[in-house]
Queue: 3 jobs
Job 1
Amino acid sequence: MFTGIIEELGTVVAIDELGDSARLSIRGATVASDAAHGDSISVNGVCLTVVDNADGVFTADVMGETLKRSALGSLRAGSAVNLERAATVATRLGGHIVQGHVDGVGQILSREAGDQWETVTFSLPAELGRYVVEKGSITVDGISLTVMAVTDDTVGPPPRSARFSVGLIPTTLKLTTLGAKGVGERVNLEVDIMAKYVEKLLAKAPRS
């Protein structure tokens, strides 16, 4: 489990293709400082397991399914990535409960700069729209963010999508990948797990 509070910006050192999977080598001095084999680290919102760790660089294997269902397949050597170690029982929950299980991939639709912050709008797979609400939480590339607005935009031919907007403060712009990503770039999305539990419970509730 994670909190969506990014600890540092890491850098992809190498990507080794292994048939239907890949091994990522990522430099991140902070998260690698105490990482051991088997530990979990969130990389752009995807929970990966540490295989090896030496000199500030850790490696992790990524299955083909993960590459297919997330934006990790777009990474290249030199790409910046958001990194967060798994939470402990003593961790301050500064963000929200994040599993590191990507629900879908969106794109940056627009960026609107303000005096001290920036409004960024993303596409959202239509089937995930029901889990996103104004003032609720969503994870974008591993970052816990508060939804400013959400709009159902499911007309037109498939693939249909919705859209949502968030406000990024200077700290987020400076210390995460969202400060440099441009319109059209893909991002990993994880909706609030609590919304999915509530939906399932209500669906199975007896009807009076």
Note: Helices lie at 29-32, 64-69, 170-175, 193-204.
Job 2
Amino acid sequence: MYLAHAFGERYELPLPLSVFLLGGTLVVVFSFLLLARRGGEPGTVPVPPGGRGDTVPEGDGGPAPDSSGAPASVGDDPGAGPSPGGLPGWLSLAVFAALAACGLWGAQEPAENLLPTTFWLLGWIAVPLSCGLIGDWTRPVNPFAVLVRLADRPGLRRRLLGSDEPVPWPSRLGWWPATVGFFLVAWAELVVNATAVVPANTAFGLLAYALVCAAAGLVFGTGFERRGEMFTVLFATWGRLGHRRFGGPGRPGLGGGLVVPFDPSPSRTAFVLLLLVSVTFDGLLATPGWDRLERRIPGNLVLHPGWLAAWRTVAFLLLAAALAVVFGMFAGVSRRLASGRTGRGGLSDLLPSLLPIAYGYLLAHNLQYLLVNAQLLAPLLGNPPGLPGWPLRLPYPFDDDFQPRVDLLPSAVYWYVSMAAVVAVHVIAVVVASVQLRRVAGSAGRARLGEYPWLAVMVAYTALSLWLLAQPLVTEVEHTG
């Protein structure tokens, strides 16, 4: 089994936790005050050097030009990408097949098999983090997107379906296939983790999804890739934060994709919200208080895995609903105050401000987990399936003599880095929200008025995020005056 999220000794805070929470929230408030003092005309967006400030909501209208004057792709929809038979695509399929073989026929202890670490650690955490920093670089090497493009062949479609042309992607489906897919993978990670990380189970799940992608590519063509293929949508969404666009929406530079509003459909809103809900629920599960709560439930559900999974599934759904209601309510009030009118789109307008928060918490909550468990890759590369009779013998550290260092960094480092990351992304969220509200505001005064409700919810969520991060890492020292 993987090493847990909390490692080594807990760090004793030099000050009460309440002081850190107060300091973090005050930074967010002060950043808002500085932004409000700077002001800005309604309906305008600050443009970085070289940028034009043109924005197009994803899925609407034509592409906006980027800083070079060339048309940028609309929304998260990727371009045509490399040909299905390109070398990166074929290599990604070969690696996927080898990993699936390791999962099916290799050792079934997760720590001894390369597949669980590759998918759950690298594919589910490290790759999204890299997209949020660099941009969505994954399109040429995403094996599921490659399968969609391979299946999108007029000749094959004519023989099997009687038509050369793919079925147009139904508007009623929107982004729901990708949203449901993300929920299922997040549910597997958070609720039934002990079962999901078994190599054979991971392999069967990925192979089943590969068949779905191939079938959907045959029927819908690349329309499924753009809005239905979960990993394409996931990496493209995180890629909005990255420095490079790789054909995605927005302008070059960190956070350049946030100037383009998200599609206002419920399915797109649900997908982005799930990014935030999943990391919040992950942090909640890691708190000692949650563990005590589950042990106090009548019948002690911890002793009954089926009931425990049902309880956590309900809790996950309730948290998602609660955050959707809270953020939706405050976003609606902010839009009403800023624009002077009611209508749909309040939460979708402010979705770009939630993406940095989700990214910051993904980084903060998984930093220690990633750095420690990534060390397992060294011996796993020496024996990918984890079989005792594996013929290839590699020297240290690619052998069983290598042991990961749990104490790679002191717990204090993780706490302060996490705290800085969470506060920084909330400050960025306030700035992004200000930009979005100014775009719909009727006047500068209304724009500033609309920012107050969203600031309130940002401050509350900053305190909650810091408190959740502190629980597995730190302990408070009692101060007496």
Note: The first strand starts at residue 11 and ends at 13.
Job 3
Amino acid sequence: MTELMTIRVGLEEGADGAVMAHALTVPGCVAIGGSAEAAVGAFERTLMEWLRFLSVSGEPVPPPGAELELAVDEWVSTDARVSIGESEALFEDDLRPLQQDEAERGVQRLGTLRGRILAHVRRRPDALLDAETPGGMTARRVLEELARAQWWTLSRLGATPMAEVPEKTLQQLDTALALVVDRLTTLPDEMRGYRLELDGEDWTPRKVLRRLLWLEWTLGAAAVAALAPVVEGRAGA
């Protein structure tokens, strides 16, 4: 008998009409489309990538042959420009207290994702980080945006923004992740289910973790992609 596994999803429809599909049972797995159907279709492909990542990382995943069913739990509207990657959604699922084991599992996933980025970055000459791609993007710009976005997101948990940003890009990344690990793994019990409104957007620890994993996945992949044409160009020179 085929095993059936349900993946719960929340849909966010932005002010621009685009839709973002957020996995509620696989935090960080997100896809964007011009419509709900397009977002769910893109989500199915992204989910397969996430499950491969989790499997390689040694985490439990559905067995081969298992049937995956997507269940849309919520559909919310926000003022975000979803088509360019903005998100403001707070789902009912985000209101559940973030338990210690969930925080530790999330931190472990962040560390594994960071390791995949650094495996590409640390073996390249530093100058390659500043080489522009045909799209005008550099790996350094993406990586520093990842560190900045992590600091900003962590401040939604009451963490104080850093007074001084490290000069080197890798130091920025290391410092940001260290702050994330410390904050999430030492979260007081009374804060695990708290809800905070800042600048018109509601936050909870579960939403913060979901956002941190999404940032690491998407911006990490963008940094590696920015390096690829540079490396290929040097190899062909």
Note: The CA atoms of residues 151 and 176 lie 6 Å apart.
